[in-house]
Write a structure and sequence with these properties.
Blueprint: H1 4-15, H2 33-47, E1 51-55, E2 61-65, E3 75-80, E4 95-98, E5 104-105, E6 111-112, H3 114-117, E7 124-127, H4 136-154, E8 163-168, H5 182-185, E9 189-195, E10 200-204, E11 207-209, E12 212-216, H6 232-241, E13 258-266, E14 270-279, H7 282-302, E15 307-311, E16 314-316, H8 320-323, H9 327-339, E17 345-348, H10 354-360, E18 367-369, E19 381-383, H11 384-404, H12 409-415
Parallel strand pairs: 3-8, 3-9, 9-18, 10-17
Antiparallel strand pairs: 1-2, 2-8, 4-7, 5-6, 7-19, 10-18, 11-14, 11-16, 12-14, 12-15, 13-14
Helix pairs in contact: 1-4, 4-11, 9-11
The structure holds zinc ion (ZN).
């Protein structure tokens, strides 16, 4: 049913569009070039029989595949169109390698190490030519969703509920769900297809706050500054010195949380700092925020003439607390992965996913594997066989919900953001 060649062709077609997003841009989408791919996807969704296909001004593509069964659950599938601006994003020349062993050598001495490839012997490995990102993150996810829809179109005997599809811009610059309207999307539950291994269900992410701290100092001419000037830069330095040195991104791993000073800008008059505060446990994340407030208050006590303002800026929650309200969703997802002949594994991400933000806003959205490896680098790759497995997972997810959803109707109503 799943056609590997077609899946590869679709994937190659998608990666040839340079859709790098831009962290410095203020517009939505952050780069116009993402819209070129968005328009192609609109056309594809229409050809695949979806209804109400739209591309809104923010660059979000959406469409609905009407149900062909009585099952009432509405399932969303989401993938992002943009690619990481960390390395060159285009023009992409995708390559195909029948992998027999050893390193894969690409242009400019870029190589994919045998170590990274040992799980993929005898498989078809897809890469860029080494001069750019490949963009499997997340065009593998987009291609797999399209292949799933193609299979459903070709086999009208496969029962499915109403499916809600969305392709989003700007995930890589942390703005993927900024304009995503979960009511308008209309799904009861959803999946992002943006992870790595097909066995994995990402159900845990950090709890994330992005605090902004503004320090207003006291400035006078440096010639008359004696016992008068209180430099905001100096106060910022004192603030940073209060942070635990072993709780930074570079000193923590696995489920340890951290403080991170991301940017610092200013002058003796005023300093603005952007921070990241991350923790898997919500109470501990709140404690970290309270700790930052206590540093601010302490500094204000010591220097009554200065002013420090801190905005907490809560960004997303660890999804797993929300799944506690509907553990059946994760159970069914595991069953679907088992149907693909794989051993499912609940995993955590030391970061956020678009699904984590959507989950916080009320749409339960775990993240599924799309197959890519070595994300955000010139030696990114994906195995075609893995992409087939990931597509199989999507079809099996539909099947398990068709079989089991009617027993869960009340629960689905309760957790759905659309009821
Ligand atoms: Zn991604």
């Amino acid at each position: 049913m799943i056609n590997a060649d077609r899946l590869k062709e679709t994937f190659f077609e998608l990666v040839r569009y340079d859709t790098g997003s831009d962290p410095k841009s203020q517009t939505s989408p952050s780069t116009k070039k993402q819209l070129a791919l968005a328009e192609v996807l609109v056309k594809k969704l229409k050809e695949l029989g979806l209804e109400n296909v739209s591309l809104n001004k923010f660059g979000i593509v959406q469409g609905t595949l009407p149900e062909n069964s009585k099952q009432k659950v509405k399932i969303g599938f989401i993938a992002h169109m943009d690619t990481s601006p960390d390395v060159a994003t285009g023009p992409v020349s995708p390559l195909e390698h029948k992998y027999v062993g050893g390193d894969i050598d690409l242009k400019n001495d870029v190589k994919i190490a045998a170590e990274d490839l040992k799980k993929f012997k005898k498989q078809t490995i897809l890469t860029s030519d080494g001069t750019t990102l490949l963009g499997a993150d997340d065009k593998a996810g987009v291609a797999e969703i399209l292949e799933m829809l193609q299979v459903l179109k070709d086999h009208s005997n496969i029962k499915h509920p109403e499916l809600k599809i969305a392709f989003t811009p700007d995930e890589e610059v942390g703005r993927g769900t900024e304009h995503f309207d979960i009511k308008e999307f209309g799904a009861d539950i959803a999946y992002t297809v943006d992870g790595s291994a097909p066995t994995d269900i990402d159900t845990e992410t950090f709890n994330a706050f992005n605090p902004q701290i503004t320090i207003t100092g006291v400035t006078v001419h440096t010639g008359y500054a004696y016992h008068k000037m209180i430099s905001a830069v100096e106060i910022a330095n004192q603030f940073i010195n209060e942070l635990p040195k072993d709780e930074t991104p570079s000193e923590t791993k696995e489920k340890e949380g951290y403080f991170h000073v991301l940017t610092i800008n200013g002058s003796p008059e005023k300093v603005k700092m952007d921070m990241l505060v991350r923790d898997f446990n919500y109470q501990r994340a709140q404690k970290r925020i309270a700790f930052l407030h206590s540093i601010c208050e302490d500094l204000e006590r010591r220097y009554p003439q200065i002013k420090i303002e801190m905005k907490d800026n809560e960004k997303y929650h660890n999804m797993n607390e929300k799944f506690a309200a509907f553990p059946e969703m994760i159970e069914l997802t595991k069953q679907a992965i088992k149907l693909s002949g794989l051993t499912p594994k609940e995993t955590y991400v030391r970061g956020g996913t678009d699904g984590a933000e959507l989950t916080l806003r009320g749409l339960l959205t775990p993240n599924l594997g799309a197959g890519g490896e070595n994300f955000h680098s010139l030696n990114e790759f994906v195995s075609l066989e893995t992409m087939v497995k990931c597509t199989e997972n999507l079809l099996n997810i539909i099947q398990v919900w068709i079989e089991k959803a009617d027993k869960l109707t009340d629960k689905i109503k309760k957790i759905s953001p659309c009821h």
